[in-house]
Structures are given as C-alpha cells and as structure tokens.
Amino acid sequence: MAEARDLKQKIGALNNLQKVMQAMNQIATVKLRRLLPQVAALRRMDQALGELARELARLLPPAENPQRTSLVVVYSGDKGLCGPSNQAVIRALVALVAERQAQGFRVETVCHGVKVAKAATRLGFAVVDLPANETLVAQLHSGDLGELYLLHNHFTSTLKQDTRTLRLVPWREPGETATAPSGLPLVLEAPEEAERALGAWLALLWDSALTHARLSEHAARMAAMDNASRNARDLADRYHLQQNRARQGAITSDLIEIISGKEALRRRRR
Predict the structure, then answer these.
(1) Collapsing DSSP states into helix, strand and coil, what is residue 117?
(2) How far is CA 125 from the centre of its chain?
(3) Cis status of the peptide bond prior to 185, with omega within 30 of 0
C-alpha cells in the first residue's frame, strides 16, 4: 500500500497546484478584460501613428554623418508564468544587439519590465534610462544618436501575440526617396513643426507599446495557466488510474493470502 499512499500524496499536490493555476488564470482574465475595451482605440491610434510616421519621414531628412550609436527601447512583462512571452522579447533583444554590434554600432538599451531588465543586466548590455522626448529629438536631429529601435510584444488577439522589432529612426537611408504625403487631415508644412510633432509621436508610441505589452502579458499568462491546469488535471487522472490499480493489486494479494491460508488449514484438518 506504500505505492498507493505515494500516489495519493502526488494527487493531492497536483490538485492544490491546479487550484493555484486556476486562480492565476482568473486573475489574468479579469485584468485582460479590463484592458480589452482599449483595443479598438489602440488599433486606431496605431494606424494614425503609422500615417504620422510617413509624414515625418517626408519632412525630416536623415541626419548627416550620424554617430554609430543605437538606442533600443524594450517593453516586457514584470512577472513570469506567462509562457514564452518574456523569453520571446529577450531572444529578439539578444538578436538585435548582436546584429547592430556586428555592424559596428554601440548599443544602449532602455528596459521597461523587470524580466527584460534583469536579462539585459545579466547579459552585460548597456542599460540606460529613457531620455526625455525633447532630448531624443535633439540627439536624432544632431546625429548624436544614429538609430532608434522599439521592441515589444504586439497584441493581436487573446490567442495571438507576436514580438515586433521596429526601426523608428532613421526614417530612410541617405539618398532614399521620401514617401508620399500620408493624407493626414493636419499636414505638417515645416521641419520645425515636424520636430515638435516627433516628440509627441514618440510619447504616444511609448504609450502604445506599453499597452500592447500589458495586453500580451495577461493574454499569455491566461493561456499558459489554462494549459498548465489542464496538464495537471491529466496527470492527476493518470495517477488516479495507477492508484486504483495499486489498490486493486493489494486487495487481490490479500485475498490470495487469505484463501491460501484457509486452504492450508483445511488440508491440515484432514
């Protein structure tokens, strides 16, 4: 019966673990539902930001002789237990840093999220604070900052999130033809207006990336906890079968011993 007792303890531990994972799934579901009403507005904002980026690219030429420096702004989750969501961001960051360093760029990272910040520090990346938007605009205009990247998980639906690496600046390579006007209702007519709009565009872009990262984190955790709870239930069911077989085997063994003893006593009486 020792095997049956061990299986009983395992089943109890799995049931307790399943309760914890179900609670985490419910918490993630509640947080996700609070953010879902923002998805429609978020998609409209992303579309408007894309149109504004085309307008800015038309009016702001690339800086002359920019420094070979890259700033990577990364957004990830603060907590784990959300499947491969955080690891996907970290892998994309490692690949981007390796690629830019191979091209001779000095790479600095701005990490929003505990998981990616710890990973960047552990990997020896240069982690800095995000400068003010006005400072970023000045650095991009003067050429002190050659490249600006944004890396985050993009929320498509509760079942689909993909990691995106966006090069924000330079808008185009030197000598490349500018894009056509975007058709915005408010068209920027001068580079000075475009520079002021660039700061506002960056602020809205950071907000959009943060919202996408939060949505993706909650959706990934909800799916991960649901899968983990299902796996724990399946494993508990297998242990139940093993427990029943062990119990039946022990009962059968006891019955055989009883019958054998009775037969031995009956023969001795003869």
Answers:
(1) helix
(2) 20
(3) no
**Looking at residue 171, what DSSP letter applies?**
S
What string of pLDDT tens digits covers the 270 residues of the chain? Answer: 567 778 888 888 888 988 988 898 899 999 999 998 989 899 998 888 888 887 777 777 666 778 889 999 999 988 888 878 899 999 999 999 999 999 999 999 999 999 999 999 999 999 999 888 888 888 888 888 889 999 999 998 888 889 999 998 887 655 555 454 444 444 445 556 777 788 888 999 999 999 999 999 999 999 889 888 889 888 888 888 888 888 887 788 878 888 887 777 777 776
Q: Which two tokens stand for residue 58?
A: 């038309």
- Tokens 């091209």 map to which residue? 103
Regarding the domain delimited by 38-222, which CATH topology (the fold level of the hierarchy) does it fall under? Pyruvate Kinase; Chain: A, domain 1 (3.40.1380)
Task: Give the C-alpha separation, 205 to 58, whole Å.
Answer: 19
Count of helix runs (H) and strand runs (E) in the chain:
6, 5
> What are the residues whose beta carbons fall under 8 Å from the beta carbon of 114, sequence distance 6 or more?
76, 77, 78, 79
Q: At what angle do helices 114-122 and 85-102 cross, to 10 degrees?
A: 40
CATH architecture observed for domain 2-23+226-269: Orthogonal Bundle (1.10)
Q: pTM value? A: 0.79
**Which candidate, 110, 121, 119, 109, places its Cα nearest to that of 88?**
119
- DSSP designation for 159: T
In degrees, to the nearest 5, what angle opens at C-alpha 237 toward C-alphas 234 and 243?
A: 145
The H-or-E segment that residue 112 falls in is strand 106-112
Tell me the C-alpha distance between 120 and 123, whole Å.
Answer: 5
Residue type for position 222: M
